[in-house]
């Protein structure tokens, strides 16, 4: 049984220049206990695509499609229904822990609030439980830290508090939107490790939104690549890195600097020329065609269907196999 | 390129592009003195790119700002192209300013939104009264060509450009007066991956063609390794290791550098999941009260008693140009 089943999700925002299509027909699902990653660059719709699941998309957004959590519809659900799910069965961790925590309450109180609200624990029970949770997420001296205000903690510690709050009610799905982007790499490594441990222990699924392919390589089981509001590729993590089937994924992997071989003057990254198209309409073409080096006429006139190339791997690309390695694109800047 | 638009001629031809000795920067705050940079010494050869890496609070940006005198150092000397600039008054620094320029992280906030691109790029020439208007226009077009922007960009305003194009404008502005030294502070951190690659390539190409020296500050090890000839690692205000980029993976000796290298994720699932990670406990201590001895000893997995008492000196390690400040190594 799919834990989360999103079908044809479309989110648009009205603007003076006409509606902006932030998410254009996004379909994906999450299995219990799975770590699935939504990857893409700024403006690809990855964050809006998950915020809209929880009614956090903003008042002006227009939604269509469907998103079933455990068989029950989330889109257009009543606030009352959503509030029984949010925080309890589906929890969120956001990028910047400083702006997600209340600066005038101690961190202990904030985590305790979740337990009292959803589990009906007494103040004393909740405090005991919070100290256990803080210890579980790797905060040293949790009993003392309970009384700290957010500003008294470092960024990494604050993100651990956010995670403690998110997992307090043992959610079945944790949505993490760029949870390590604001953190240093040595701290990031610890947070990713913690997410994996919590998944292994509690069997919760994790829906991780990130732009960092290194993070994806570290933690994801399955990956969904988004471009200009659309899903362009979906694959098991190893297959995606070994044999990307969409030209955008391929070019994105070629664009990241890799460790090793430093100081070699002959080494060259290949960037992607051009910029992301505006999202004012849903083009009847591949959204990436304008920046793609192997684009043919077909790519500019017909939207490529989402086609399975191997079990579990599918892409929306007319030229999934075309090779554009470093050698072929060396001349491009 | 010898004309009135080019920078000041070097005072001495064999001096390094940048020589920094004993650089110290303290900030007085209500809570006490923040020791952002603590006795940092290094040099950058002519035409060399040196990467400066470290985590937030390591002092890497402060070093960059002190080097170009945006923030005058508390102590120590900064010599650019044979000329000492650290003791100069404001006017003296200003006269020499075309020789050392800066590229900032966020082009959205470092470009004046009310100026056209042509005026932004030409401004260093205008301020320093270099060249006639016609020459300046020609030079602006030259620079736009160099950074890969079409000439029609000249009449645009920053908000009409994409992030990558804006960063190209900042690079053009930084290079128009032919500086001997360019400090680039996280020039690609605000950009998407696909755009980042072209900006890194651009910096590399321009440096090769124009021969300026560059201090490339970043938290991204892979980007630094790609661009720089040599990498300098900072921790809590001090340089802990300097090593050529090629040796960063295998020959890095300082436990902090090794932890940093092991924590940066590799975009390859098989490799990433089979690596052994050095996990650091705790956080970077406050620069208000840095620990005694080696600044890293509280988080160091191999700390000894001596590390708590005495700060290690930056001494030669293995191979040319390798220096490391660690009691375990020496």
TrEMBL record, chain A:
Cross-referenced SUPFAM superfamilies: P-loop containing nucleoside triphosphate hydrolases (SSF52540)
Transport in keyword set: yes
One Gene Ontology term from the biological process aspect of the record: peptide transport
Keywords: ATP-binding, Cell membrane, Membrane, Nucleotide-binding, Transport
Pfam families in the cross-refs: ABC_tran, oligo_HPY
NCBIfam families: oligo_HPY (TIGR01727)
Protein name: ABC transporter ATP-binding protein
Organism from which the protein derives: Sinosporangium siamense
Automatic annotation (TrEMBL), chain B:
This protein's UniProt keywords: ATP-binding, Nucleotide-binding, Transport
Source organism (scientific name): Sinosporangium siamense
Gene Ontology BP term (one): peptide transport
A GO term, aspect molecular function: ATP hydrolysis activity
Family to which the UniProt record says this protein belongs: Belongs to the ABC transporter superfamily.
All copies of domain ABC transporter, residue ranges: 18-261
InterPro entries, alphabetized: AAA+_ATPase (IPR003593), ABC_transp_ATP-bind (IPR050319), ABC_transporter-like_ATP-bd (IPR003439), ABC_transporter-like_CS (IPR017871), Oligopep_ABC_C (IPR013563), P-loop_NTPase (IPR027417)
One Pfam family linked to the record: oligo_HPY
Record-annotated membrane-spanning stretches: none
Protein name (Swiss-Prot/TrEMBL): Peptide ABC transporter ATP-binding protein
